[in-house]
Write a structure and sequence with these properties.
The complex is a heterodimer.
Chain A (H helix, E strand, L loop, with lengths): L7 H19 L6 H8 L3 H15 L7 H17 L4 H24 L5 H20 L4 E2 L3 H6 L3 H20 L1 H11 L1 H6 L4 H27 L1 E2 L7 H11 L11 H22 L4 H36 L2
Antiparallel strand pairs in A: 1-2
Helix pairs in contact in A: 1-13, 3-8, 3-9, 3-11, 3-12, 3-13, 4-5, 4-6, 4-11, 5-6, 5-11, 8-9, 12-13, 13-14
Chain B lengths: L1 H20 L14 E6 L6 H17 L2 E5 L7 H14 L3 E4 L4 H13 L3 E5 L10 E4 L3 H15 L7 E7 L5 H14 L5 E8 L4 H14 L3 E6 L4 H11 L7 E5 L2 H9 L6 E3 L2 H16 L9 E3 L5 E5 L2 E3 L4 E3 L10
Parallel strand pairs in B: 1-2, 1-3, 3-4, 4-5, 5-13, 6-7, 6-8, 8-9, 9-10
Antiparallel strand pairs in B: 10-14, 11-12, 12-13
The chains are: A mainly alpha, B alpha/beta.
Chain lengths: 319, 338
Amino acid sequence: MKNLRWSRELTLVVLLLCLFGAASILEPKFVTMRAQTLLATHLWELALVAIPMLLIVITAGIDLSVGSIVALSAVSFGLMFERNVPPVVAVGLTVLVGTVLGSLNGWFVTKMKVHPLLVTLATLAAFRGMAEGISTARAISGYPDWLLNALQGPTPIVLFALVATGTHLVMTQTYFGRWVVAIGTEENVSRFSRIPVDRVKQWLYGFSGLVCGIAAVLLVARNNTAKADMATGLELEAITAVVLGGASIHGGKGRVTGLVLGLLLIHETREFVSWHWKQNELSLIVIGSLLILTVLLENIAERRKDRKPKVAITATENP
Amino acid sequence: MKNLLSILALAVVIVGCSGGDSAKSEAPKESGSKQITVAMLPKKKGVPYFTSCSEGAMEAAKELGNVELIYDGPTSGDAADAVKLIDQWTAQGVDVIAVSPNDPAVLGPAMKRARDAGIKVLTWDADADAANREFLVNQATPEEIGNSLVDAMAKDLGGDSATGDVAIVTASLTAANQNEWIKFMKVRLAKYPGLKLVATKPSNEDQKLAFSVTQDLMKVYPGLKGVFAISSVAFPGAAEAIKQAGKSGKVLVTGLSTPNDMKTYVKEDVVKSVILWNTKDLGYLTIFAARALADGKLKAGDTTLSAGRLGEKKVVGDNVMLGGTITFDKANIDEFDF
């Protein structure tokens, strides 16, 4: 047990095993492949959006506007479709819309030096308002089946796998990844060390927008509808997953592996609670408790780790 | 490590114990047919209208004795959350899913997935694409409702010779049954040449939005005499706007609501007539229809359905009809409590 480093990933795996253990006794059907496949359908937009959110949180920033970017991109997609823009072009343009919106956040953060919380709180409201405005709060439906089918099934999973793996590699293997962590750890030192802080941030907010654009297209395809009130509250779900995955909200800490496990735990908990107790709102309470439980478990583990050497030192000092 | 393990053990125990308690509802009573599970989805959970429907449903489930009822829905009223629940019930393999779709386009694919998995799907309260469900439990025909609304408004504004501008505050512009009612309201309005429909505005199942939309309507149309607030959420919102503007009695509002929700407004003369079908009976009938559907007793071509204390109910095409509206006013509203 000594050389096993207690990491957030380990905590999450233990909790997941507990959950599946409990589930296989209480609700055997829950742990079947068929059920899991069906339940997983609704996870991917959140999973995608959480990845750039992780990177932004690691730089000690935050992006509260992701849900609104998804909504505004989704509505743009719907409107383009309505105006007979070829679907494939509309998909491309939607991703572009998302990227532009995200980059706008980045511009305010880096050039205007406004705190990301303020910038994205403002764009959270503004983008949602624009989505409602340009769509006149209508729902835009009626997409061709081939398009809906192409964007469902394995497509979201493949996209998520690509983005997650790519991000993991960038974070662990490249200078860019180290810069992201350095900025979150000590921004001023990073600037003195000639790390292009602003450029990195600009990229990350743009990346967040791009992924939101992709999520928007997937969301429209899954719901067969583009509507201004889509993805409300997505930002908080994404931040919850990021924090549960072990990222520090103060920056400098966080891993894609932790995030993926955090997402999985949130998803399975939510579905299981709603499945077993048949009251879907209960899952909110449980996820809140889960977050506290995880932090608690780790604090205990940390304290134990700290205690040992202290005992050793006092022992040598007082013979 | 000991600490840690004990906390984990505790967590498992908590999960385990509370699981035991929630056991499978009441023990099944005597009945010939097998135990079935019916999942009932309201548009929005926690609003009095749907809660009162669920009371009727529970009553029916208890009376039948062999129906386990799951009543759950999005507290946000978000269609995407409703889809998650339908998929979950499909994964659980319930016998019947009864849906009140808040957005038929969004819920359609999930309802289709449920049917593909061999689950019987009903709609109640609101309809979806007929291909995605077998029957609709219909509270009242759109024509009955449209006529009742317009007639009540005309009566409150002075009968056949009523004059003035009227406006509609609807749920959302995509809500299927509201749109049907509006269609018949327009037809009926032709009977009263003095009444002029000036606007139809959405409130998206949001009371605050209904409030501000009504405020705007009063500003834009000074000749406004009446507002039809035709969702259970829009109605109190519109009434509150009129009350706060000090126009009680000058601008009338009518609509569909549970009596308890509108009681104070009726007593304060902001609202003269509240229209509704019997919501408890709607939930009750839905469960009887679900049971009959699962047993193969309700099938295409049937013209009647035997529904417990409601007696024989008419089946028209693929609609199980509840039928009839009630008008609540100052004189009778205290007699109803839901």
